[in-house]
Design brief:
The protein is built from 11 helices and 20 strands. The protein has 402 residues and is α+β, with helices and mostly antiparallel strands. It has a single domain, classed as FAD/NAD(P)-binding domain (3-Layer(bba) Sandwich).
Length: 402
């Protein structure tokens, strides 16, 4: 059996589902393919260990595709301050929403909340079709169209095939696109914790010799932690007793939130710097982690992916409305030029910061501390960094603008 769609998106996570919502609500027939149905109901007292710090730009995108109200209903956690400090120097940075035109710097949202709201939205859009559970067995790309062969033998033909299937994208490999990058030999340890002192709706991040430790304020008063550690240390900490783990965590925190009271399930994920050498092929495009994987120290990975989704959706919608082919090489090159440079700049910045703060030379430590303090006392420079981190920069897709 063969079915034809204007667009097929493989990967129903935050990025793929956002692109699908944007296209379907514009009247473009789109199929979303995923191997697993996402969880959409869970006990009220539980918290997903995978949490994203969504910027103002991402908020705008999710609002524009109709998912934000359902996310708010399930629970989002605004934060209005961010405090960053270096354990090995006197350097510190403070960011305050009061220095912007907004009431918050961003929102901490469980990944499952975002995905559930997007899938709820897809189900009511008449131009969206969901193929799930389904896996891609093969793809065929040529100058006229793309063909997707599913594992049940079903064939989907499309003008544009969009791969949003993650860092280890099988579609990227099927399309013959190579990647460049390296393993950091670091893991990101994630968990949900309870602390003695209130998080004060502040995101706290302390740079330590093995990598940064971030406390992200959740709506229920707890914090989600993202702790960058060497691979060996992370694997040891995942299996420590709760008491021993909390002792290590409290020491690493510098006591900023008082005593560490409890911790939920822990997970550790290997970190990688990776980018696709090309974002496109014939009638084919990569978005999100399939195109780029960056260090999580500033929480920009998901936000960069949502900008990818908004950019390619905007180009497809504009082409469709103008009567132009939506899978043309010209459109795909426009997408690649638009997003690849911005993503590489963000990735390079995160990589540089990670290297700077894991360097143990004494003179260098003092220099970076002085640099942080200088930025903290320079209102113009700090405001620039603040707005850039919020996603408020030039050349944003229309979906990302207020």
């Amino acid at each position: 059996m063969s079915k034809a769609y204007a667009a097929v998106i493989v990967g129903g996570g935050m990025v793929g589902a956002t692109a699908a919502c944007a296209l379907a609500q514009a009247g473009i027939k789109v199929a979303l393919v995923d191997a697993h149905n996402p969880v959409r109901d869970w006990p009220a007292e539980t918290v997903d260990i995978r949490v994203s710090a969504l910027t103002r730009a991402s908020h705008n995108i999710l609002q524009a595709v109709g998912a934000w109200p359902a996310m708010v209903e399930r629970g989002v956690g605004p934060y209005d301050h961010m405090h960053v400090w270096d354990a090995d120097s006197a350097g510190e940075l403070d960011f305050d929403a009061a220095d912007t035109e907004f009431t918050e710097l961003g929102h901490l949202v469980e990944n499952r909340v975002t995905v559930a709201a997007l899938w709820d939205r897809l189900e009511i859009l008449s131009d969206a079709s969901i193929h799930c559970p389904a896996k891609v067995a093969d793809i065929e790309l040529d100058s006229s169209a793309a063909k997707v062969v599913l594992d049940d033998g079903q064939i989907l033909t499309t003008e544009i095939l969009i791969a949003a299937d993650g860092r280890d994208s099988s579609l990227r490999q099927m399309a013959g696109i190579q990647t460049t990058g390296w393993e950091y030999k670091q893991d990101g340890l994630v968990a949900t914790i309870s602390t003695e002192n209130s998080h004060q709706y502040t995101a706290w991040q302390r740079f330590l010799p093995e990598g940064p430790l971030a406390f992200l304020p959740l709506k229920n008063g707890q914090c989600s932690i993202v702790w960058t550690l060497s691979h060996q240390t992370a694997q040891e900490y995942v299996v420590l007793t709760e008491k021993d783990f909390l002792q290590h965590l409290e020491q690493a925190s510098g006591g900023v939130l008082g005593e560490m009271l409890s911790v939920g399930p822990r997970g550790a994920f290997p970190l990688r710097f990776q980018y696709a050498n090309q974002y496109i092929a014939e009638h084919f495009a990569l978005i999100g982690d399939a195109a780029h994987a960056m260090h999580p120290l500033a929480g920009q990975g998901a936000n960069a992916g949502l900008l990818d989704a908004a950019a390619i959706a905007e180009l497809i919608i504009n082409a469709e409305q103008a009567g132009r082919p939506i899978g043309s090489h010209k459109l795909l090159r426009q997408y690649e030029r638009w997003r690849k440079g911005d993503n590489l700049a963000m990735m390079g910045s995160m990589d540089m910061i990670n290297k700077i703060y894991t360097t143990q030379n004494e003179g260098f430590r003092q220099l970076r501390g002085s640099g942080m303090s200088w930025i903290n006392h320079s209102a113009w420079v700090k405001n620039y960094f603040n707005r850039y981190a919020m996603g408020l920069r030039d050349d944003l897709p229309a979906f990302a603008r207020s």
